[in-house]
Amino acid sequence: MGSELLHKSAAKIPDYEPIVGKNTIEELRMLADKLSGKVIQNVNSTFSGGGVAEILSRMVPLLSQLGVDARWDIIQGTEEFFEVTKKFHNALHGKKEKLTTADFALFQEVSQKNIDDFKSYGDFNLIHDPQPAALIARKKDMGGKWVWRCHIDVSNPNKKVWQYLRDFVVQYDAAVFSSPNFAQQLPIRQLLISPSIDPLSDKNKELTSETIDAVLHKYNLDKDKPMVIQISRFDYLKDPVGVIQAFEIVRKSIECQLVLAGGTATDDPESEEVLEKVRERAAGNPDIHILLITPGSDIEINALQRAAAVIIQKSIKEGFGLTISEALWKGKPVVASAVGGIPLQVKNKLTGLLCHSIEGAAFDLRQLLSNPDYASWLGKNGREHVRQNFLITRHLKDYLLLFLSLDYTSDLIYL
Amino acid sequence: MNEWLTENWLLVTVPVVVFVAFFIVALWVRGATYKALDKRLNKASWQGSQFIVQTTKTPFFHWWLILGAFVAIEISAMPSSDKELAVKILGSLLVTSLTWVAITLTERLLRFYMGKIEIPLPSIGLTVNVVRIAVIVVGVLVLLDIWGAPTTPIILVLATVILVVVIATRNTILNLFSGFELMSGNLLNVGDYIKLESGEEGYIEDIAWVNTKIKTLGGNIILVPNGKFTQTTVTNYGRPLKKATKPFHFYTRLHLKELTGLKASNIAELARILNEVPDSVVYYHTHHFLEEHQYLTPEPANDFALWISDAIGDEALAEKLASIDIFEFPNIGALRTRLVSVINEYLSTNPNSRVAPEGREFHFIKSTSVILPTAYVANDLREFIQVLRGITIDSLYFHVFESRLRLQKGTNDFSTWLQECLGEDDLANKIAKLDPYNYTLEGLRSAIIQLIEKRIK
Question: Are A119 and A93 in contact (CB under 8 A)?
Answer without folding.
Answer: no
